[in-house]
Amino acid sequence: MMATAPAMTATTPVPPAAAVLAPRPPAVLVLVADLQWTGAPALLDGWARTSVSLRSDRPRADAADGYLTVGKGARSGTPEPDTGVGPVVATGDGGVRLVDWDRLRAHDTTLDFDGELGALGQALTTSGRRWALVGPDPAAAAAVADRDGVVPRAVDGGAPAVAAALADGADALVVAVPAPEVPAVVAAAEQGCVVVASVSSPEQNRHLGVLAASPPCELGQAGLSSPSTHQSHLATLLDVAPTFLSRLGVEPPETMRGSIVRPSPPISRAELVDRDRRAHTADGVRTRLVWLFVTLTAVGAVVAVRWRRSRAPVAWGLMAVPPASFLIMVVPWWRWGLAGALVAGGVTAGLLALPAAVVGRRRPLLGVGALAAVTVAVVGIDAVFGGRLEIDAPFGNSPVGAGRFYGVGNIGSGLLMGGLIVAVGLAVQRWGRRAVTPGAAALGAGVVVGGAPWFGADVGGVLASVPAYSTIVLARRRWSVRLLAGVVAVTALVLALFVAADLARPPAARTHLGRIISDGGLVDAMVNKANRALESVQNPLSLIVVIGVAAVVAVRPRPGRDPALSAMTWALVVAGVVGSAVNDSGLLVAAAVSTMAWPTLVVAADADAPPRSTAGIAATTTSPDATSDAGGTGASSNVAASVLIDRAAPEERR
């Protein structure tokens, strides 16, 4: 039970450093545990509203973790799951104190997230506003405790206590009540700005939560969006404190990692409920879909190694799955659960594989290249439009897990790099000089689409794609320390240009990297990413790397016989190795590259096989359009491919 606060007639002195903006009407933040749009009060339908990602420190959290995250304005949590914030005792002057605050702060410093516990409470106290915590839940003190773990004023009560505090002149209230009491609290504070926010959801945060603001908050009566997610109608738990402080007229502390939400186009409750259902269903079936794909990959690898004629069909079928996993997001498969995902994914993959089989009937590598190009087109075009297909996709970004909300995810980045390398490599191998200029343009566009802050915004993709693509571009060059230093310099230059462009944008529009650099936390972020990368070995998708390498070794392709295939192979290796080293998803990037790489190399093992007779050699060297009996391209096109981007090199004949 909380202590009962005395009348709020005194005003806390304003320190000189306090940042106070123009006065606003009273602001009330209502924090509710386990609140979803399916059970949210009907009165919220007339407010500005959005879904909110409730991720705190750990993926499966509770209300205590949510309170700490709100109070910090950045991710946090309790030292152990389901342990709460510890005892909360009265201070004797109308406030309360968290007994275990030092332990909570010590634990917070060990986490991978910047910020400071107590940021919200400290900002309220130093602002000079008269405020109090209202509600029966002692754990809510963690949301508004100051840096010392103290809440100056706390009232045990509900709607009557809210009405009394506002009548007594309170400028701000933070109220923590169960969902059934929300309408009464809103009625008691109807003259002020009321922000209702979930701090947790049922099933340990496997759902999206609620964030809504009443008309006096001046955020409209339609939808809300957040710069944190770069997506309409999706905010994060980190945005709650900055948004509340902004409605009160207080500048959010710089330590807060959330953003102030802003108006966006209208959205209905039914649409918000459906978005929650999509996120919940996708999060629930993702692991099973990944295991299914890994199993299909393993079976396909065995079949391709054992039966040579099956290699092309296996490659077409497996390479159609990644682009299909994004394209299924245009249909509401989640309404039918796992069965819906399987049907939608199977049909879409089949529709992609069938044309590839037709194109590759006589030349299997053409079908492989076509599917690689389709993958590049799907991921790339989606990145240009904000990465919306990646949200809740099996190989995309999860708003529940909250690893990334926009642009190209790490798996998508691997698919983009792997698909582009395969498509360009096979194009040069097939059409020689005619494919050089379009291929170079495609590689350059891939860097921009994957890494530019207004498109893919994937820093790790830049660090991996520039060296990988350089492996193709510089295929005719002899590698040296000087050349390697040049590639590193170009990579740094491209990254610097993207960072500069990002920092030139308004703070609210910047990417995660731009915010980290502007705040000086780059080194800590790199260390945190490295720690998370090591955990990727536990993901079943990482097994695809092992499966792919085993399959390629078993068929013993000899890409060195063809300069284009050799350059393509080395570029794929660089993309997988460097991509895994610089991304926090670790081996998952190599796994994504491998989904494009190993089927291509297995099919190429036939196309690159030695000629069976002297007559065959003569035939391929005299006809530029001749092809091998395995469906590969002729020797003369391989010779043309050997020049690659080095257009000044004389054409050689074998």
Structural class of the helices, strands and pairings?
Answer: alpha/beta
Shape: elongated
Mean pLDDT score: 85
Radius of gyration: 29 Å
Spatial strand order of the main sheet: 7-5-8-1-9-10-2-13
Number of E-state strands: 14
Q: How would you sum up the major sheet? A: 8 strands, mixed
Distance between the termini: 88 Å
| Alpha plus pi helix count | 24
Question: Oligomerization state of this entry?
Answer: single chain
The number of distinct structural domains comes to 2
Helix content: 40-55%
Percent of sequence in beta strands: 5-15%
Low-confidence stretches: 3-22, 609-654
Describe the structure.
- Helices cover 50% and strands 8% of the residues.
- It has 654 residues and is of the alpha/beta class.
- The chain has 2 domains: 27-267, Alkaline Phosphatase, subunit A, CATH 3.40.720; 274-641, no CATH class.
- It has an 8-stranded mixed β-sheet, with helices on both faces.
- Helix 5 (159-167) packs parallel to helix 6 (182-188).
- It starts with 26 loop residues before the first strand and ends in a 13-residue tail after the last helix.
- Residues 3-22 and 609-654 have low confidence and may be disordered.
